UniProtKB/TrEMBL annotation:
GO terms for biological process: DNA damage response. Residues 143-199, 272-333, 355-457 form the BRCT domain. Transmembrane segments: none annotated. This is PAX-interacting protein 1. Its main location: nucleus. It is found in: Nucleus. Keywords: DNA damage, Nucleus. It comes from the Eukaryota. PROSITE patterns: BRCT.
Length: 460
């Protein structure tokens, strides 16, 4: 019997950011990208969106206040906005703030690789998993954050514990106490693929929660997307972005922001004053910090909350030679060894804008007497980041009440010499996990993420 030859599988679509043949300056990786931003002004605030615009321009991109033919990217939350619908008809790239953040981290315009990068098809009131109570297990650090954001965007309620009332468990691996309990109690256990499908609009995932597709644990890429679900969003990525010499020159001009103030030991006061600048000693007033090399000082940590630019002394000399403030992008202070040592990326911290001032929002601190850095230096750092420092220690009951309302809303910073003052919080049967070394504040500012567990103080 003759059997016709099997058809080859369809070729996988090729998606592009910039034209692969282009060689872009590393600091201007958004060249050729023209953004129009919608929806976020209402949900995140106009001031924060303005900071995003500044970050885009410093990286070579442009921002159009009105949607027009020049726009290449629409930054949006959902597909339901009128401008987004028109942009999709016009084959524009529609992406979220998550994509922009990841593009900044990777320093490149890459096609979306995570479901959070694409605008949601759901309105807030219609999120598909709004009746689910979810728990998670096995996820750490950035992956844990992404799972949490995914759950938020599909409307599920995330619980830090797991009981029989939970309706789904999102596991990275088929192991752990929560996993075993879920199996015993008959609670569905799924991988992140279930979240990804729901985010991309595959509503059948709700009724097919036990599907073998969602039981493939230990995947190397747990957030892998099925692009066929969002072909209408990915069509625009089939053509690479090209840039003209004119757009290159325009981006270089707009990336050089005007200077308002400067800080740092080697900053030359007369030279800066001649240019209309001002040398200040307070980090709260500074917009630029000038240093010979990156050293983790209190001034650096505090300035990371406020300044827009971290510069070498050559910037001051070049500004004097030009008789105007020089392009900061050419004189940025960078040190990969410093970043590696402290597990941070200083240049990315500067791109966080006003968000830096909300890092400790809703967190109350108590500092024991002998803390290092000094009480004054730590208080400045905490308050610059929106936190609060109390002068008097709270009782165990009072701390427990705060802790029960929100984890890590109250933290005690101490050093070995002061442990006797906080022993009542460290006893094994009463441990509240609120006593930390001062490193929790320094590292949080340098990483722009409050990570408490790493710096908890324990006693044997």
């Amino acid at each position: 019997v003759y059997a016709p030859p099997a058809r080859p599988p369809p070729a996988r679509a090729q998606f592009y950011g910039h034209n692969p043949n282009l060689k872009l300056p590393p600091d201007l990786f958004l060249l050729g990208c023209v953004f129009h931003i919608v929806e976020y002004q209402q949900s995140w605030g106009a001031e924060r969106v303005s900071r995003w615009g500044e970050a885009i321009q410093r990286r070579g991109g442009e921002v159009e206040p009105v949607y027009c033919a020049r726009v290449t990217h629409v930054l949006c939350e959902t597909q339901r906005h009128g401008v987004v619908m028109q942009a999709l008809r016009d084959a524009k790239r529609c992406v979220t703030a998550y994509w922009l953040s990841d593009a900044m981290l990777r320093r490149g315009v890459l096609p979306p690789w995570h479901a959070l990068h694409l605008p949601s098809m759901y309105a807030a009131r219609d999120r598909p998993a709004r009746h689910h109570r979810a728990a998670i297990s096995g996820w750490r650090d950035d992956e844990r954050d992404r799972v949490t954001f995914c759950l938020e965007h599909i409307g599920a309620k995330l619980t830090p514990y797991m009981t029989r009332d939970n309706t789904v468990l999102i596991c990275k691996r088929a192991e752990g106490n929560k996993y075993r309990r879920a199996r015993d109690w008959g609670i569905p256990v799924v991988t992140a693929a279930w979240l990804t499908d729901l985010l991309l609009g595959n509503m059948s995932a709700l009724s097919q929660i036990e599907n073998a597709k969602y039981q493939q644990f230990n995947l190397t890429s747990p957030f892998r997307m099925d692009y066929s679900l969002v072909s209408h969003l990915m069509n625009a990525w089939k053509m690479p972005i090209n840039i003209t010499q004119e757009s290159h020159e325009r981006a270089k001009r707009s990336a050089a922001a005007a200077c308002v103030a400067a800080g740092g030991r080697r900053a030359k006061r007369p030279r800066l004053q001649q240019l209309g600048g001002l040398v200040v000693s307070s980090a709260a007033e500074a917009t630029h910090l000038v240093m010979d090399k990156l050293v983790r000082t209190c001034k650096l940590i505090s300035s990371l909350v406020t300044v827009k630019h971290l510069l070498t002394p050559e910037w001051v000399l070049e500004s004097q030679r030009l008789n105007k403030f020089a392009d900061e992008a050419k004189h940025g202070l960078r040190d990969e060894a410093f970043n590696k040592m402290f597990k941070c990326d200083i240049s990315e911290v500067l791109l966080c804008g006003e968000m830096r001032k909300k890092l400790f929002e809703g967190v109350t601190f108590f500092l024991t007497p002998c803390v290092k850095p000094s009480r004054g230096a730590l208080t400045e750092m905490i308050e610059l980041c929106g936190g609060k420092v109390e002068k008097n220690r709270r009782s165990y009951v009072s701390i427990q009440e705060m802790h029960n309302q929100k984890n890590y809303s109250y933290l005690v910073l101490t050093v070995p010499n002061d442990l006797h003052l906080v022993y009542y919080l460290l006893q094994s049967e009463k441990t509240l996990n609120v006593v930390c070394s001062t490193e929790v504040v320094l590292s949080a500012i340098m990483r722009q993420k409050l990570e408490v567990e790493e710096f908890l103080v324990k006693i044997d």
